[in-house]
Specification:
Helices cover 45% and strands 15% of the residues. It is α/β, with parallel strands linked by helices and 249 residues long. It has one domain: NAD(P)-binding Rossmann-like Domain (Rossmann fold). A 7-stranded parallel beta sheet has the order 3-2-1-4-5-6-7, sandwiched between helices. Helix 4 links the parallel strand 4 and strand 5. Helix 1 packs across helix 8, helix 3 packs parallel to helix 4 and helix 4 runs parallel beside helix 6.
Length: 249
């Protein structure tokens, strides 16, 4: 039980990678806060955790809204008394398209959820982690940052910003015993692929041809890396961007 007596917040934990991350942490002893904008999905995952005896708190949270994040932090402390782990996983996707056709509304929503959302979540947990003189934060980027993929400038710009934010936080808060790392997933089978034609669509087939391991990853394969990074086994790893992409980059 690597995370016995630890408290973990996982955003976007109602489906995909977030669900698997929450389940892995809960099965290894952590009390988990499910921070999810889709209340029904969040409650479903919470019920699964309760069914095997795990400790859980499900909250409806829009990570782009500071009031939601502040309430999330308050309710976590009220219920569990500490915050040891943050997995800033929440994300959205949109169909690809040329930059000159991108709307300001789409740009704002994408950057608000990914970059601003990650910033707000980190900002909310850091005071308690400083007080505890310990903490583990994992952010989520994308292999696309290195691939220079066309057609999704708002998504990739926000993910590149997350990588820069991660490195800055690692330097700034390392003296307090806080590790901050980022995972850059590749082709992972999640509901987000539905807006790109699905995991078996034409775009997905083209991506699959570029992967040396010759296959897509399952969300659990990302969750296991998250669990490693927030465990004592990764105590001397901080400020790193960890690619989990089957050799794509």
């Amino acid at each position: 039980m690597r995370f016995k007596d630890k408290v973990a917040i996982v955003t976007g934990a109602g489906s995909g990678m977030g669900r698997e991350e929450a389940m892995v942490l809960a099965r290894e002893g952590a009390a988990v806060v499910i921070a999810e904008i889709n209340e029904a999905n969040g409650q479903k995952v919470a019920k699964e955790i309760e069914d095997f005896g795990g400790k859980v708190l499900a909250l409806q949270v829009d990570v782009s809204q500071s009031k939601d994040i502040e309430e999330m932090a308050k309710m976590t402390l009220d219920k569990f008394g500490r915050m040891d782990i943050l997995v800033a996983n929440a994300g959205i996707e949109e169909p690809f398209g040329p930059t000159h056709e991108l709307t300001e509304t789409s740009w704002d929503r994408m950057t608000d959820v990914h970059l601003k959302g990650t910033f707000l979540c980190c900002k909310a947990v850091l005071p308690q982690m400083i007080k505890q003189r310990s903490g583990k934060i994992v952010t989520i980027s994308s292999v696309g940052v290195k691939l220079r993929a066309p057609g999704s400038p708002h998504y990739l710009a926000s993910k590149a910003g997350i990588e820069a934010l991660t490195k800055t936080l690692a330097v700034e808060y390392g003296p307090y015993g806080i590790n901050v790392n980022c995972i850059a997933p590749g082709f992972i089978v999640t509901p987000m692929w539905n807006v790109l034609g699905g995991p078996d669509g034409e775009f997905a087939k083209k991506v699959l041809q570029l992967i040396p391991l010759g296959r897509r990853a399952e969300p659990i394969e990302i969750a296991k890396v998250v669990a490693f990074l927030v465990s004592d086994d990764a105590s001397y790893i901080s400020g790193q961007i960890i690619g989990v992409n089957g050799g794509l980059t």
